[in-house]
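assembly run, all chains below
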Amino acid sequence: MKAAAALRVLVLSLLVAALALPVWRTRTGPLAPAWLGDAKALEGRSDSLLVGRAPPAIARASTDAPTARELELLAAASRRAPLYAALPRTPVSVGVQPPARALSGRAAAVGFRVRGAPGDSVRVRVADESGMLDSVSVRLDASGGASGAFRVRPPRAGWREWIVDAGGRTVRTGAWVDSAGAPRVLVRAGFPHWESKFVVRALEESGAIVETGFDLGRGQSVAAGGGAATPDRLARTDAAVVLDATPVAEAERRALAEWASARGGGVLLVGGQGAAGAFGLAADAQSRAVDGPAVAWTLPPELAALPADRVRSAAAVFGAVRPGTAVGATAGGGGVLALRPLGRGRAAALALTETWRWRMEAGRLAEHREFWRALVDWLASAPRDPLSIQLPEPVAPAGARRELIVYAAPDAAGAVPALVVRGPDNHVDTLALAADPARPGVLRAAMVPADTGLYTVAFAGRATSAAFRATAGTGAAEDGWARLAMIAGSSGGRMLPADSLRGVVQRLAPAGASEGSRLPLAALLFGAVLLAAAAEWAIRRLRGAA
Amino acid sequence: MSTIAHAPPSTSRPLRAPADRLIAGVRAAWRRSVLLRALVIGPALFAAAAVALVLIDLLIPLRAVLRETLRWLPPLMGAGWIGYALYRILNPPPPRRFALLAEERIPALENRLLTAFDMAETVPDGVVHRAFVADTERRLQAAGPRGVAPLHLRTPATILALSIGIAALFALAFPGAAREALSRWMHPADAYASKWREVRANTLPAVPPAPMPMFDEFRWRVQPPAYAGLAVEEGRGDEPVSALPGSHVRLRSRFPGRWDAVRASAIGGAPVAVRREGEEWVVDYTMPADAKGLTLEAVASGETIDRRVVPLIPLPDQAPDVQLLAPDADLVLAQPSGRLTVRASAGDDYGVGAFWLHWTRSRGSGESYEFTEGDWQFTRVARNGRTASGDFSIDLATLGLQAGDVMHLRATARDRNDVTGPGESVSRTRIVRIARPDEFDQVNTDLGLPSELPKDPVLSQRMIILMTERLVRDAPRMQRAEVQARSNEIAREQGRLREVVGEQIYIRGADSGVQPQGVDFGYLESGGGAGGGHAAGDSHGAEPAPAAATEEATLEAASEATGQGTIDEVSHKHDEGDLLDVNRSLLTLHNLMWSAEGQLKLIRPDSSLPHQYEALRMIQAMQRAERVFPRGNVAVDPINVAEARGQGKMDDVGPVARTRGAALASLGPLLAELDRVAAGIGRRAPRQSALEVSALAARALEAGVDRQAAALISQASGEAGAGRVERARDLLRRARGRLSPSAGAGARPLPSTADPAAAEYFRRIGRGG
Amino acid sequence: MRTAASVRRAALAAALVALALAAPGVRSAPSVAAARGPAALPAQAAPAGRGPEAFTFATARYESGNWDSAPLVPTNILHSVAQYTAIPVASQGVLVDLSSPEIFRFPYLFLTGHLPLRFNPQENANLKAYVERGGLLHVEDHSHDVDGGFHKTAVAELRRIFGANALRPIPNTHELYRSFFLFPDGPPTTSHELNGWGDGLVHENLLGVEVNGRLGVLYSNKDYASEWNYHARNKRFQSVDNTRFGVNIVVYALTR
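ok done. output:
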């Protein structure tokens, strides 16, 4: 009888203890931060993180990019405890430069600069809404930097965005794509030859609209109204290609130069054109044969190179180029392609006079086509408008200050109309431009977009010529790391270098905190209650008291 | 007597009434107690169990499924107890049990109640008996049911109060946890799942599930046409099905009950019948040569709910590869006689069917050629698996060939392809020309072939070498006279052959001028006349013939030129006239044969052999040259461009401006569509995306793009339908990569800005020039 | 899987191509596989001098038949081009082996003969690539005989290479007839069409294979090969130069 009574007391006390335990622990028992080594650990503890007592902090130690599921879990868990997460081991930062000027159907360049651990090799990708367009693997130099650019061809006019991704970092940029038809090209040749034939063929196959000016001799020509480049013919033209051995008379040369510099045309002089000097490109030219592999291409990204096939082309390689001229390709110490802005237009000189051999002999149809089309696109893409708007950051969060820079040609710098910015809700702002005292011809304005969405920019009374987009949160919302940082920030925690994470979390842990695994003790207690209850019942049964 | 005067009790069931009254009382008390206890214990059980479960779940978070089952325990226990109590009340025990209860709980009765029961039916008599009845009646009157059924409500009431207390305490102390617990037990889905729903709701687009079942994985079976003799192939999945044209392709997969029909049609072709076999749809399709693919559509309630495209790749059946093994060179025969053995072999990827020899005889010259053609079956055809080889021996005499006729021989083979074929191909053509009387390529003819010319033919140099070698071998075992006889015999043959060469030298020397151009050995002539080469021998540009020379002069010149006949001396002479220049090779050959013949006459066959070998080498060289230049080079005077420039009469001149060339039919629109569709995936419903993507795949196949790219697109449609957006996008990206492989050519590091000119350029370009 | 098999086949073909190319000396190597693609081209000698190369009239030397039946046509046409235009021309034609990659250096290629014509696999592959890349192959049936061995076989070969329906009549309003001289009635007739030789027909049209709107193959039964096959200096005896259409062909080849 006594034993039974004693047991009953024991059972009751245990029961009370079991019931009181959680209360007692919640009140007093300190809990260690939840340490998540990897995604599996997170899965394992998801329930205890989201239900029951929240740990004082959650620490994500993995340096791998977080998966979407991880982010969801952490987003949910971080509502109950601050999230501290380790930064990736070699944090790569990407900067992206929007195309200076984009025209629909024409080649444009999206530049990028990558910073990271020196010597690392990083794959950089460019994508648009349709998916990945292009990728390149760059090796970071001793200073941990690398820069490059992608050639893109926006198919439609209007706002266009590109996403550049490197080492898990994603940056968006965008540009207002002006509508432009297929480039209209005048191909000028003193007499028809294979180069003239295949240049025209390549351009036409690539969709350009070509007019030929081929002299056949004895007053005949393959062109309406003679072969020469007259001003009225140039008026219908975006770019003119003057092929080798074309006798360019002084009048024609003047017409070309005037049209290029004043009306934004593009002139390409092929072969040893003495005229090249007059266009401020190259002075002297020396004839020799150039092998495909011997050509070293250092092209701006809008242009395409010819492949290094075993093809030998005649060339008039020029020695020195005039100042202000960029050399796009060299062979054996001489220049093969020279490029320069010429007033409002552009001019280029190409030493190779037999690029057709790449097509016929090496069978590089696509490459030959792309080489010529890209070259003509570049020539034809000089801004006709004396005023151009540049936006350093076309895609950035709403609320961030935007700078709008206007470059004005000297003759137009006098009267620059105000900028009209139309917001996503069709709300119109007019921005006054302030001239930059340091740089003549440069005017600046700034605004802070309040709402998210697309803002179009135009000069008062003119069509839209630029745009920018204000995003919600950071511009890099797609980036897993960025989202993790957002979650950590909003939860009161932050991102830390992987090696310093442990220390910080230990500092956060209260004294004598358990690892948060309350399961064993509780189970023990619960088992004891059951055991004691069973024993008490058995004794009573034996005593016949039941 | 007064006691006698006492009235006796009624004799019928004397104790009935009071006993019944007492038992009724007891029963009522019992009912009351059972009901009251149930009303307390039931809730107590419920509360205790509930609190216990919640606390256990707090200690050891229970999985949803456990909570789902355990949460019914408390109500079951509580309601169960009450229900049982009601049952007992409604079905009480018999009165005798209550009597027993009453006897147990009311000591004052001293078992009289039961006794009264026992004697209830008996008629009492006797004094003792009457006295007992009277006493019992008195005791029953005195007894009441109080205390018969006590309540004992303290323990359950305590548990109930305790549970409620704990619950209240917990709820007050930790309202959050309590709410959490309540939600966990009221809606026992996993809590983090519900949290995810919240998170997803505001971070991800809500993607409604596809309302209808989509296509399952396809299973295909290809039965190649009979002629190929290939085994049946089976497979599954979305990859393109490649098969020989004429193969029977069978596609099948599950036919969900909710579909109305499955429609199939060949891309760019007619609809294909679909039949239903139990739970599956089946498409049987015979692969045409220009098969592109099959489009399959699932139709439910009048609208297409899913579409798949299965690209079909017709495997090419290569035409046979025919080789003409013999003769291995074009021939020029002196006369249309002798036998010519033609040997050819043919191989085909699925076996050679017919195999014969085709001949064309062209007769005539200049502008009038007549052609006769015909076939010869090989006399012997040896077949070995997929290859065949045949022999045919032509008796030239029976063909009625004339001088100047040209026989074109080629072997022709036909494969067994009875679907798209038969594929037929021919070997290279061998030309057998019968020399005109004015052509002199005897040397080539007689020396070239193992000659089987009738009546005392000239033996070839090779034959003579064989004979000589045999003689050298046998000589030790032969009589001197016999050796001499055979050596002289060989010498005679060598002599006859040498004469033929000498004849050549003579005639060539004499007529080299008038001999028309383009005959064999033309390559020997440095001074070939202009305007030659035309088979008709055009009247233009014929040159005057140089003076003729006599045979003696020729041979003198020959021996003089070649001295002891060493090749070096010949090849180093630079000062011969036209004559020797023309004939140098033949002179050398002639001289070598001379030396060989001389050695044989001196019965020195062994020392004659080196000359013979050298002669044979030269002859073979001539024949090789003959094959490489079948007609000979033609030297034509260059024109004087400067002189001709601008001399033409410019009548009817009026070059038109060239019409504008069409842009290449590019994949641009298709790629743009692909981009649009890819962008839509994930934004639209999976089913809609799948439909769009599959339509794109069909369009790609119709445009005749790379089949593998189309296959990737159609796989993407499956993934999109299943809602695997990333996978679908990835497949589309790969398809795009296949469609425009030049992507990737655009990226390159910027040129170093160390170059000031380039720096200047980029500064300017940076702001659009 | 069949695809695997085809991959193996392709690999084998590639290997054979490599072998065939490794031994360029072996001209008549009977390698079918070598014909899967045009032969690779060794780098040629440095082009002479400044300016574009002068137009060179190239005649194809093929393995079967008599490829050199009209040896005087090249100089004759070059002479005419020099007479009527300012286009620089070479003073002589060149011969190129149809099976050698040399043909890709001459975007205009002349091919003629009387006898049955059979291209070997390498010649097939070269011709296909040549036309796809933009060359113009000019084929003349020297026997101007639609029942002749050359016509039958040449047409069969061209159809085999470029497809059954590729070889079509060229409309007489084609640019070819207006590229320099004007031929409003289409191709000029030749004396050989009227002199009773050959098929005795006057052919209304020339045939051609067009690639993206431009002639890739020009096929003629009219036998300009015979018509033009005389020494240029004898042109002076003619009242109307019968090689003027040749100038049109050359100008077309150079400008379209």
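The first strand of chain C starts at residue 58 and ends at 61.

The first helix of chain C runs from residue 2 to 22.

not gonna interpret more than that til we talk
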